[in-house]
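A favour, since you know our structure tokens better than I do. Could you add the entry underneath, on a fresh line?
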Amino acid sequence: MRIRVLCAIGVFGAMAAMPAAVEALTVTESECGEGADFIRNAARSRDNGIPAQAFLERLEGDLHAIRAYPPAMRWFARDAQDEALLRTAATTVFTAPRSADEHHRAFLSDCRALLAGVPPPGAIATR
């Protein structure tokens, strides 16, 4: 089971390191703030003992369930790029732990940069 988590984290890390086309996200500025709050709460969950595997499996299940709704009715994860941003940040909470507020600030900064259609100042996974 631990190998499965490490493999999943490795895949997410590799995805985050791959260069991507700079496209604006489909989320709003307000949703960037809500996404940052979600990432801060992920870090708090980590601090309270939630294992990476449990948290990331739940996130994947939630993302899968959300896809049942039309993109216009979804919160944050309207397309694959939105999902990747959230997934990468959540994975980073466990692979590169920092304070909950630091994860919040990094996500908000990167989300805003992507909304503006520019590469973020640094990849979430390395900040």
User: Anything to note?
Assistant: Confidence is low (pLDDT under 50) at residues 5-23. The chain has one domain: 2-126. The first helix runs from residue 2 to 17. Residues 2-126 form one domain.
